[in-house]
Amino acid sequence: MTEIIGFCNRKGGVGKTTTAINIAASLAVAEKRILLVDLDPQCNATTGLGLDKTSIKSTIYDIVSGEPSPVPTKTTLPFLDIIPSSPDLVGSEIELVEVNGREMRVREGLKAYLGRYDYIFIDGPPSLGLLTINLLTASSGVIIPVQCEFYALEGLSDLIGAIDLVRADLNPTLEVFGVLLTMFDSRNNLAHEVEAELRSHFKEKVFETVIPRSVKLSEAPSHGKPIILHDVHSKGAESYMRLAEEFLTRVEMKGAGEWKEGRSVGASPR
Predict the structure, then answer these.
(1) I want to staple 240 with a disulfide (CB 3.0 to 4.6 A). Which of 14, 22, 188, 193 is the partner?
(2) 67 closest CA partner among 76, 56, 59
(3) In the beta sheet, which residues pair with residue 83?
(4) C-alpha dihedral, 1 to 118 to 38 to 4, nearest 10°
(5) How far apart are CA 255 and CA 70, in angstroms?
(6) First CA to last CA across the chain, in angstroms?
């Protein structure tokens, strides 16, 4: 069965796309069949995997605009495909305003890929507009990357509120799959304070794996590569591989009915 996971945070610059790309790539290296859907008009997941956003014909805009689901684009990793984004997506929220079932467009479009992939990951925009609502309606779980800095919790309550509303009205199976701490600097006391606050509030929902602040992680998108292809020995690559392991452990525990009971996940130490 295909699991659909969305990556979202209404605040930009928190490592959302970096996380979507790199957990997808890490799982693909483990020979899990992964489809990454770039639902962000900025097209960062598309360019971050080395694709030219101006030359692609079949994109997620096809699904959003009600056209047939496109053939996914291959990447340099054999088990990782992508449905690229398009600059045309910028005006899609205005186009959808008067469309019946506008919140369901992505969910309906992704049905064409169910059973062909182990996981479908959706990288959403840094907002709470119709594209993010589509992401939440299509997903069974959401991963929320949170930057370990002062404004980390800004807007987080609004996102949780949106998740609750979508769960109540459109998608009763939706849940927060995990909260991920990103750009963590162990020398910074504030980073530890943010971590403590998040773990206190979200408890076992917070991944044990923490993604460090890393120059190599920042460089990788400019080369059009996930971190494991840019520098597999870097701390960033090691962290995302650990995160992929923890992700799979959570999926297994969820299937066994243990994760929802709040039991801790045995992740590798950071």
Answers:
(1) 22
(2) 59
(3) 37
(4) 30
(5) 30
(6) 31
Q: What is the pLDDT of residue 97?
A: 86
CA–CA distance, 11 with 154 (Å, rounded to integer): 8
* CB contact set of 253 (below 8 Å; sequence gap of 6+): 259, 263, 265
Q: Quick check: 178 and 248 in contact, CB under 8 A?
A: no
Q: What does the pLDDT average to over 66-84?
A: 96
Catalogue all structural domains in the chain, each as residue range(s) with its CATH number: 3-261 (3.40.50.300)
How many beta carbons lie within 10 A of that of residue 151, not counting itself? Answer: 12
**β-sheet bridge partners, residue 7:** 123, 143
Query: Would you mind telling me the total number of residues written for the chain in this entry?
Result: 270
* pLDDT above 60: residue 93: yes
Written as one string, the DSSP assignment of 189-239 is HHHHHHHHHHHHHHGGGEEEEEEEP-HHHHHGGGGT--HHHH-TTSHHHHH
Alpha helices in 84-188 (DSSP H): 92-96, 105-110, 130-138, 156-169
Which pLDDT tens digit goes with each residue over 193-206?
989 999 998 999 99
Global pTM reads 0.92
CA 191, 267, 137, 157 dihedral sign is negative
